[in-house]
Structure formats: C-alpha cells, structure tokens
Amino acid sequence: MSLVFDITFLYMFLFILSLNIVLCIEIEIKDFHPQERDALLLIRDSLNSSSINLHRNWTGPPCIENNLSIWFGIACSNWHVVHITIQGVNLSGYLPSTFLQNITFLRQIDFRNNALFGLLPNLTGLVFLEEVKLSFNHFSGSIPLEYVELYNLDILELQENYLDGEIPPFDQPSLISFNVSYNHLVGKIPETSLLQRFPKSSFDDNSDLCGKPLDKSCSAESPAPLPFAIAPTSSMETNKTRIHVWIIALIAVVAALCIFLMIIAFLFCKRKARGNEERINDSARYVFGAWAKKMVSIVGNSEDSEKLGQLEFSNKKFQVFDMDDLLRASAEVLGGGDFGVTYKATLETGNVVAVKRLGYMNDLSKKEFIQQMQLLGEIKHENVAEIISFFHSEDQKLVIYELVSDGTLSELLHEGRGIGRIPLDWTTRLAIIKDIAKGLDFLHQFLSSHKVPHANLKSSNVLIHQDNQGYHSKLTDYGFLPLLSSSMKNAEKLSISKSPEFVKRKKLTHKTDVYCFGIIMLEIITGKIPGHILGNEVEETSNDLSDWVRTVVNNDWSTDIFDLEILAEKDGHDAMLNLTEIALECTDMMPEKRPKMSLVLKRIEEIEQMMKDNE
Ligand SMILES: Nc1ncnc2c1ncn2[C@@H]1O[C@H](COP(=O)(O)OP(=O)(O)OP(=O)(O)O)[C@@H](O)[C@H]1O
Fold first, then answer.
1. Topology of domain 30-210, CATH
2. Which positions bind ATP (predicted)?
C-alpha cells in the first residue's frame, strides 16, 4: 500500500515538475521577443565598428529581468527594446532598410557621429518614436515622407549628412527640436506652422534651400508648360490633327519609356554584378565627392573669397597640389575616429595623401588652429606621420598627412585571430615597441612645452608601413590637446582620458603619455585589447590590462601573460619579462613614479642589444 502511495506521489511530483518546466519555458518564450532580437541582429551583421565589437556583445536575449539589457546601447522596458543608442563609435556600413519595423515599441534611436551610408531608415509604423538622432553620418537620398506621420516625435536630428531632395511638410505638434542643416536639400521650406517656428540654424548650409525662416527667398515659379501643347483652333479639322498628334506622341512616349526601362534594367544587372566591395568604394567616393561639392558651393556662395582659404603647406616638396586638386581627387574612406573621418585621396598629379576631416573643433579660432598646425607641420621624424598640409575654414578643418599604407598596429595585433593568421613574432613586436618609443621620445623633446605632447597614443594611432626590411611604425593623431583644451568633454575622446590622473581630474603631464605608452607595450606583449580583459567591452576601465598583468606577475605566473603567438619563443622570454617590468613602471598609478620617455627608450635599446648578443 505504502509502495503504491509512494509511486503515486512520485508521479504527482514528476507531473508538477514537468508542468513547472512547461510553464517556465512558456514564461521564457513570453519574455523573449524574437522578432526584436532578429531586427537587432540584422543591424549587428550589417555594420562594423573599430571601437566596439557588436558581434561579441550582442549575444543572448536583448532584454533581461528588471528592464535591463546587457547589450551595448540597448535599453528595455517591459521586455521590449525601447532605445538604441550607438553614437560616436566609428560605426560604418548601410542600415538595412526595414530593420526597425519589428521593434514596435521603439522610443529612441540614436546613431549620431558615426559613418553610416545609404538611405535613411524606414520608420513607418513606429508610432512610439520620440527621438530620431542620425546626425553626423554619411546618409544620402531624401528625407522619407513617412517621417511626417510620426506623431509622437519630439526630436529629429539629421544635420551633417548628404541628404538631398525637398523637406517633407512636417507639422506634428510634438516636434520641439528639428535640424536638417549641412545637407544638400533643395526647394522651398514647406510653410507649415511648425517648420516656420524653428530658427534659421535648423536649415543652414543646404545648397538650394529657400523660403522662410532662411533669408533666401524662392524665385517665382513659372507655370510648367503643358506637354505637347498645341495652339487652340475652332475647326473640326484642327481637332482631328490634334488627336493624331496626341496618338503619335503617346506612341513615342511609350517607346521611349520601354527603351528607358531596358537601359535601367541593364544598368541595374551590371551594377549588381560588380559586387558589394565596389558598392562600398562607390559610396566612399560619393562621400568625398559630396563633400567636395559642398566646399565648392561654399566658395560659390561666398562673397568673401577668403572663406575657403588656401591649403597651408608645411613641406615645400609637396606644394604641387592646391585645394582645387584636392577637391577633384578620387577618395575613399579609410575610417572614422572620435574626431572625424579620414580619407585616402588620390590626386590627379599621382600623389596619394591621407585627409583627416576634423569635427568637434568648430569653436576654435583660425589663429589658434593655424599656429598649432604650423608647429606640428615642422615635425619630421621617421616614426611620426608627417603633416603635409592643413586647411581651415569656418566649418571645415582638414589635416593632410603622408599616407602610411599598411594599416594600424591595432589591426596588426588583433585582426584575423585564429586559423590562417600569420603570427606576429617577438622580434617584430620588439621593433615596433622601439619605433613607438623613438617617435614618442622625439615628440616629448620637440613639443617639450606642451602639457601632453601626443595625448592620443593608442594602437589605432600607430600606423604601419611594411617593406623588405620589416615593419616600421609611425605615430599619428598627435598634438591635438591644445586644440581641445577649452572643453574637457572633448578631451575625454583622447586616450589620455584612461590615465589615473585624468580620471581623478589631476594635473596632466608628459608622464600621461608615458602611461599610454605602457598600455600599448602591454597590448603588444599580451595580445589583449585594453578595456576588454573581462570580456566586457561596454565600460572600458582605465587600467584593467595593467591590473591584470600586475596580478599575474605578482603571483609568479609571469609567462601566462604572453600572447600565445610568442609563447613558444622561449629565447625571448627574458626580454619579454624585462619589457613587462618597464611597462608596469610606465603604468604606475602615480605619474611621478613613471620613468621619462628618454630613459624608457634607453632601456628598450639595451634589451634589444641583449637579445642580439644572445643570438
Ligand atoms: N596617415 C594615414 N595613412 C594611412 N591611413 C591612415 C592615416 N591616418 C589614418 N589612417 C587610417 O584611417 C583610420 C581612421 O583614422 P582616424 O584617425 O580618423 O580614426 P582613429 O585613429 O581610428 O580614431 P581617433 O580619431 O579616435 O584617433 C585609421 O584606422 C587608419 O586605418
């Protein structure tokens, strides 16, 4: 009897348990909105960023309990994705056209300050949208008409893109902030009561925009001529002739239309076959072309020919091109950073240069900019990328560098990890460390009066050139701190912002550069990306790499820190450990305990000599 009771009890227990499991699964399925996740994965797989790795971060469910999300830039409410905020992270690529439509409860979309191409996203049906911020990108095409149907929209920011066409008649009462300046919009600003309320600055710098609130009035539109208009006559004969003419005209139009469609279809197939890569290049070329168009329009509109200004040359040997040549150059985007976008420009003369278009520096005076650039232009060193020329106008600041053709140290160290990658051996790594130390030591001497001479030293600002003698490194993006000093917020975009003294708002010195150099050394020795040690790319802590190395070394597991690609080179272990010791001194929390760059260079050269002697 008791056995029967036990078995019955066991069955009941199992039944309840299985019921619970079913319920749990149901709860999980209910909590998880696969269509929203799929939409986000579409974005993830279409875009690239050199600052964040969406592929590694956007995994698992986008929303978890308590309205939280561990996905970068995603905020949730009630298990629904409500905010997508991915700004200023070098995001490049094309947004899939209808990707957002399944994220029904979306309230905010913010992709500002990236390098996104193509058409603006389709937002049809996203009735909860309150903020759409897509400014400072490379979007092209027209503003979709459906945007006027977003009745809860508070903010629409589309400035600094390459948008063309006319402005749709926005009139939703909710809209309190609107900006479409710095585009290529044309036509009359619609006379809706809403649009007339915004200031002139919301519409400024569009090639052919007219009407209020701009000062430019629209020329009187002449009525469009009627197609195939024929002078009216009273006789039947004339009517007959008219009908004939219409029939002939109709046939001609249909024939022309057929030919036109055939040409379009042919071009479309041809274009498709050219493949994805070319599409990106085309778009990049367009971006530079569009920029050039904008510059030309500034000159054209300007009463003051000084507005465009001249290219300033720091090196006479390169003075073979001028602004016109630069605007006619074919160009492609090399990448975008925190301070703007860098292009490779091939001039008609055959010269190839890197053009960095600086954002964030618009409040800077021309005098300050020119003084600093003239000084930086005098720097000539084999381990520092040369500034050939620069340009200043009210809204454009360009720095033209020598082109260093083989990528960055960051790419060399971290890209293509896994099967098929050619390991970066220890001798090469040591040579790179020495090159960087030489370049930085030179900057410290040349710009000795600067608070922090480089101020933005990180592996993506070490450019690589390869020849039959090996790899050569050149530092770039140096000397910008004086241009930003008026705003601490801008300085936060520099690599020095990760130093302990910056975080504690203490005095910055040359030793702040030394700290950044120590971090690069650790990155080269360990093969690990600073800020990613805990696999957490969201909050880049200032010193997680040096903390981790210190802990491992203090526990006598020193060789555990070596990148697997150099671990097998046992002869180099002593040198690797000596360099790790220097790197840890350079990353000391107290700036005064860090060695000077000249001493660091001397010690590196001694270690290199020691290695050569042991060979
Ligand atoms: N002088 C140059 N020669 C060749 N390529 C360059 C040159 N300068 C920059 N690049 C390329 O352009 C890309 C973007 O550079 P950019 O300086 O705009 O951004 P970043 O270095 O990634 O970020 P940040 O602006 O924050 O330093 C770099 O990753 C590099 O590949």
1. 3.80.10
2. 356
